[in-house]
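In this section we walk through a basic example: taking a raw amino acid sequence and producing a predicted 3D structure, encoded as C-alpha cells. The instruction is simple. Fold the sequence below.
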Amino acid sequence: MKRKTWLLGGLGTAVALALLGWAFAPRPVAVETAAVAQGRFETAIEEDARTRVRDRYVVGAPLAGVLQRIALREGDAVEPGQALALLTPLPPALQDERTLREQQARLGAAQAARERAAARLARAQVGLQQARAEAGRSEELIRQGFVSLSKLDNDRLAVEAARRDVDAAEQDRRVALHDEEQARAALAAVRGGGGEAGRGVVLRAPVAARVLRVNQPSEATVAAGAPLLELGDTARLEVVAELLTTDALQAAPGSRVLVERWGGAGVLEGRVRLVEPGAFTKVSALGVEEQRVRVLIDLTGDPARWSALGDGYRVGVRIVTQSVEGAVQVPVGAVFPVEDEGVLAVYRVEGERARLQPVEVAARNGAQAWIKSGLQPGQEVVVYPSAALKDGARVQRRKVS
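The resulting C-alpha cell sequence is shown next.
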C-alpha cells in the first residue's frame, strides 16, 4: 500500500513538472515571411506633373483697332493661312508720323526674325545630318564589335532629337513669315493703302493647329499687341514635372519615364528631353520654401494611345534613375540595422528557426531592397520582425489573408 502511494505520488510529481515545463517553455514566434527573389530592380523619382503643347502660338493684334467678333471656339482646328479674325484700323489714331515709324520698325524686326529663323533651320538641318552620320558610323562599328549597343541607342535618340529640332525650326520659320506678312499689312493700313489693307487687317493662322483659348471672343477695341487667340498642336504634347533640384540631378536627359494616373488604361512611356538650367523657388503646401526645376518629358510610343490628353492635364510621372537586371531583392521591411554593430541584417528562416544574417544593401526603393551579398534567390526571410524575435528562435509562419 505504501509502495503504491509512493508510485502515485511520483507519477503526479512528474506530470506536474512536465506541465510546468510545457507552460514556461518558449513559444514559437509568429512571423510573416517572404521569398528572396531575383529580377529587375529599379529606383525612380515620383512626382505630379502636367501636360502642355510643345509649341504654343499667341496671335496678337499687330496694331490698335476694332476687332470684329471671332467665330472660332476652343477646340476648333485651323489650317495654315486660314483667316482667324478681322481687325479694322482706327484712322484718327493711325494716321500720324509716330505710328508710321513704329510700324516700319515692326516690319524691320519681323524681317530680321524671319532671317534668324531661316538660319536656325539651316543649323538644325546640319545637326540632323551630323546625327545621322554619327548613327551610321555606330552601326558600322557595332557590326565590327568596337562599340556597345548603348552607344547606338544614344545616337539614334540624338537623330530623333535633331529631327524634332528641324521640325521646330521649320515651324519658327513659318511663324516668322506670318509675322512679317502681318507687319506689312499693318504698315499698309497705316499708310492708307487700298484693297484688303484699306478695309482692315486679316489675322491668319501661322501653322496647322487647334484653338486652345480665345482671349477676346466679342467685338471690341483692342490695343496693339493685345493677345487674341492661342493656338497649339495637341498632337505634339510634352509633360512638365517640377522636381526638387536634388532629385533633378538624377533625372538625366534620356532617362526612361513612366506616365501614370493620366486617366487612361495602362502606363504611357516617355523620355526626359531637357532639365532646364534655371531653378525657381516654390512654397509647398506646408509653407516650406523649396528650390525646384522644370524637367521636360517627351511622350513616346503610339500617339493614338494618348490622343485624348490635352493642354494642362494633370498626370503622375516615375522617372527611372537606376535599373538593374537580375538583382537579388527582398521586401524593404525585412532589412533592419543591428545595434552596436553598424551593419544591416535580415532574419533568414531555416526549417523552424530564425537565423540572423548580415547583408549588404546596394540600394532601396519604395518596396524592395537590392541585396548585394548575404542572401541567395529562393531563401526565406522574415518581414517586419518583432522585438521578441532573436537569433535561433523558433518561428511559426503566419498566414496572410
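Looking at the output, two observations stand out. The two ends are 59 Å apart (CA to CA). Residues 97-144 form the longest helix (48 residues). In the next section we compare this with other chains.
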